[in-house]
């Protein structure tokens, strides 16, 4: 019957006008690295726009396009205008600081050796090597003074200290090197660590420098974080909730988020940014900027 068709059209129109049907959120354009994986997740308990004030921290440099912790990766991150370049520190046998994450060089370099067993001159003989696409790219292991010489006061260095053989051995050489390069200023430097002892030593030498206390995955303790003597708390994304972000920020503590699961990092970036975190360690600078614009 014609009247039934007209009634059906009218009912559908009313539902649309009243907002019964909601448009699907637009999925951000993915990168080739992540294929067609769905990359959008809304923060259900706090829908809204991401803050434009989120600090973009290039994790190990621009490591999605070049070997991590190399000068080339750092230069790409700087050109992409990341707010900070993240640098993991290791110490050589002769107490020189190099940019490297793991305890041995075989994660990206050509030899399975521990930095602490070799002198700076020996470490410089090892190359890093990583494949992107069909090409293998090589670069030398980078020392911290080489990074400072390359960028000077044109970059913000977000460095991670750690205990060496259970002791605070790298903090004083780090502070001395920063002083020698006129970089001992919060404009140029932030220092993070999983070690409270290391951060305490840094604060004794340079109380003006911003410090970040990191928590390992599933070891985050909100009460401990609220009582910690640090300007920033660094949390693995799976431990981040809206309540955690709100509680820390209400006490004037910044929240920076890192990611350990490559498969879900981009999805998790969107979620935590929508919670209003202050900074993210990203493996894809361009993608993070895209999320912030949505």
Describe this structure in words.
The protein is of the alpha/beta class and 294 residues long. The protein has a single domain, classed as TIM Barrel (Alpha-Beta Barrel). Helix content is 31%, strand content 19%. It has 10 helices and 11 strands. The chain has an 8-stranded parallel beta barrel with strand order 1-2-6-7-8-9-10-11, surrounded by 5 helices. A two-stranded antiparallel sheet has the order 4-5. The protein is globular and about 50 Å long. The protein starts with a helix and ends with a helix.
Quick take:
With 294 residues, this protein is an alpha/beta fold. It has 10 helices and 11 strands. It has a single domain (33-293), classed as Phosphatidylinositol (PI) phosphodiesterase (TIM Barrel).
* Count of DSSP-assigned helices: 10
Count every beta strand, where a strand is a DSSP E run of 2 or more residues.
11
Q: What Rg is obtained from the alpha carbons, in whole angstroms?
A: 23 Å
| Largest sheet geometry | 8 strands, parallel, barrel
**Per the principal axes of the C-alpha atoms, what is the gross shape?**
globular
Low-confidence stretches: 7-50
Question: Alpha-carbon distance between the termini?
Answer: 47 Å
The fourth-level CATH homologous superfamily is: Phosphatidylinositol (PI) phosphodiesterase
CATH architectural arrangement: Alpha-Beta Barrel
Number of domains: 1
Beta strand %: 15-25%
Report the order of strands and helices.
HEHEEHEEHEHEHEHEHEHEH
């Amino acid at each position: 019957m014609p009247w039934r068709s007209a009634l059906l059209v009218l009912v559908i129109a009313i539902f649309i006008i009243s907002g019964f049907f909601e448009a699907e959120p637009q999925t951000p354009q993915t990168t080739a690295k992540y294929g067609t994986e769905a990359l959008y997740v809304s923060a259900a308990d706090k829908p809204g726009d991401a803050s434009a004030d989120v600090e973009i921290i290039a994790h190990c440099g621009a490591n999605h396009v070049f070997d991590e912790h190399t000068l080339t990766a750092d230069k790409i991150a700087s050109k992409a205008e990341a707010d900070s370049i993240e640098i993991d520190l290791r110490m050589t046998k002769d107490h020189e600081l190099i940019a490297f994450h793991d305890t041995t060089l075989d994660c990206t370099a050509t030899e399975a050796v521990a930095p602490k067993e070799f002198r700076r001159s020996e470490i410089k003989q090892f190359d890093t090597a990583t494949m992107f696409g069909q090409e293998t790219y090589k670069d030398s292991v980078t020392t911290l003074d080489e990074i400072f010489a390359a960028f000077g006061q044109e970059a913000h260095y977000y460095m991670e200290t750690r205990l060496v053989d259970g002791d605070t051995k790298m903090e004083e050489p780090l502070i001395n090197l920063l002083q020698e390069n006129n970089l001992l200023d919060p404009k140029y430097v932030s220092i993070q660590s999983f070690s409270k002892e290391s951060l305490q030593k840094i604060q004794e030498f340079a109380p003006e420098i911003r410090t970040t206390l990191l928590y390992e995955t599933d070891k985050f303790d909100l009460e401990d974080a609220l009582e910690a003597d640090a300007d920033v708390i660094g949390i693995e994304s799976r431990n981040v909730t809206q309540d955690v972000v709100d509680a820390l920020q209400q006490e004037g503590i910044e929240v920076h988020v890192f990611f350990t699961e490559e498969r879900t990092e981009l999805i998790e970036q969107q979620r935590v940014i929508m919670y209003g975190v202050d900074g993210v360690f990203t493996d894809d600078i361009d993608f993070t900027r895209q999320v912030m614009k949505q």
